Amino acid sequence: MGVEIRVEGLTKSFGRQVIWQDVSLSIPAGEISVLLGPSGTGKSVFLKSLVGLLKPDRGHIYIGDRDLPYLPEHQLYETRKLFGVLFQDGALFGSMNLFDNIAFPLREHTRKTEAEVKRIVLEKMDLVGLMGAEGKLPGEISGGMKKRAGLARALVLDPEILLVDEPDSGLDPVRTAFLNQVFIDLNAQLDCTFLIVTHDINTARTVPDNIGLLYQRHLAMFGPREMLLSSEEPVVRQFLNASKVGPIGMSEEKDASELEAEAKMGLDSGKLPPIPPQQMPSNGLVRRGQHAPGAWCAAHGVTPPPGSFVDELGRNWVDEWPRYVASMQAGQAVGAGGVTPPGGPGFPPPGPGPGGAAH
Ligand SMILES: Nc1ncnc2c1ncn2[C@@H]1O[C@H](COP(=O)(O)OP(=O)(O)O)[C@@H](O)[C@H]1O
Ligand SMILES: [Mg+2]
């Protein structure tokens, strides 16, 4: 199922610059969580703190009963093997072909034979839709393929936790949508907890089970996707609506007089847009953390904004859900009595591995 990461009172500063303080959250095992935040709020610093590349000033990071910041070096080294990390630039070695790049952690950290290395590398390349690209050099492939190669390398030691830093940086919206589909398909297929850091609002709205928002040196909110997407909290609302109106200004926060001026003009960050249906696996599997659409809202007496959970075909997934679950349980393929998930069967087109052909 992957493992839970429990963060308590985590604080990090560089010299006198506090990056964030008193961050507490539990990242649920096996689910996809997204951490959102304006640029420079310390999202990358947070990921690096989780894997022990940066040491927090105070606070705890529990994985099971291990408290990462306080582990002796050799135990930290062992615990790091639970993590797969996809850094922002993919961090591939430019002089090595994709096969050798992806094989690198296996050759460094295990005593597997070359035959085993080959089997594992090809299996992971298949998982991310990179079959046939083994001999390519990083300089010869597109940004989307580089991210997939970095992802295959992050998966090669079968991590319990996958951390991904800005998968959408440098990718166009179509490539981003394909890569997001790969994450969703992998999540359904692997026993792994996902934490994806992004400032892409569309990714945050459709991909995760949970959303967190880093803002003004603290974690403004963390919880189930529907909770954040229906929140009236001004910062959460402004950020998830990509609105210029609200407490977030050009240079991070606006001052009191700017906010007062907006209030006088009767501006607010707009009506909440509809909550979109979650993007579903394209590989016929169910997400690890799957909840029925609208379930959180219903359980908490929250009326979702009008038009919520309606997909591009006009189907309301609150109503569609029982039929979809039944067709999944019966193992019916899409088109053969099976219900097409939001996004449609051709998204992405069928191809090698989840996520379809390499892009
Ligand atoms: N190793 C470091 N030493 C000093 N300051 C750093 C270091 N790493 C990051 N920072 C600072 O921490 C802040 C947050 O950076 P970062 O985590 O990269 O933001 P984000 O990923 O949210 O865009 C920035 O002001 C950055 O300059
Ligand atoms: Mg960053």
TrEMBL record:
Region listing for Disordered, in residue ranges: 335-359
Pro residues compositional bias, start-end: 342-353
Domain of life: Bacteria
Keyword Transport on entry: yes
Keyword entries, A-Z: ATP-binding, Nucleotide-binding, Transport
GO MF annotation, one: ATP binding
The keyword Transferase belongs to this UniProt entry's keyword annotation: no
Residues annotated as signal peptide: none
ABC transporter domain segment(s): 5-241
Record-linked InterPro entries: AAA+_ATPase, ABC_transporter-like_ATP-bd, ABC_transporter-like_CS, P-loop_NTPase
Protein's name in the database: ABC transporter ATP-binding protein
Organism, as annotated: Actinomadura logoneensis
